[in-house]
Amino acid sequence: MPYEYLDHQADLGIRGMGETPQEALSAGAQAMLAAIANLDTVRCTQTWTQRCTAPDIGALFVEWLNELLYQREIHGALFVSAQVIDLEQRADGWVLTGTVCGEPLALDRHEIYTEVKAATYSGLGYGYCSEKGCYVVQCVVDV
Predict the structure, then answer these.
(1) What is the value of pTM for the model shown?
(2) CATH number of 3-142, picked from 2.40.128.110, 3.55.10.10, 1.10.510.10, 1.25.40.10
(3) What is the rounded average pLDDT of the residues 60-79?
């Protein structure tokens, strides 16, 4: 799942890309997780399932990232991977179901890079990029 970071004055722009919207959303979430910590130091000992809704896929990206941050905080965990397992369009918007895998935070073992406070609607974008031949989703996260 490819992702990249975008230049931003004070915060961090993230972009996820994939052959499907699900892959792009998963890659974008992975970009955020990799910005938080060295994922090589995080194990997958627990799995959590998240579900969120939004009127469109761009807004759904922000909602999902914020749900991941919320779950990380309430479980006191670091996540090593995030994957969209279902993406469904309904009459009132989109529903995303995803899973994350990680373990409780252990400061003596985990290498933390930065704290991501929230995903924002700044720089929000979603669509198919014919130049890259894939779906792209992006936003700025507040660090």
Answers:
(1) 0.95
(2) 3.55.10.10
(3) 97
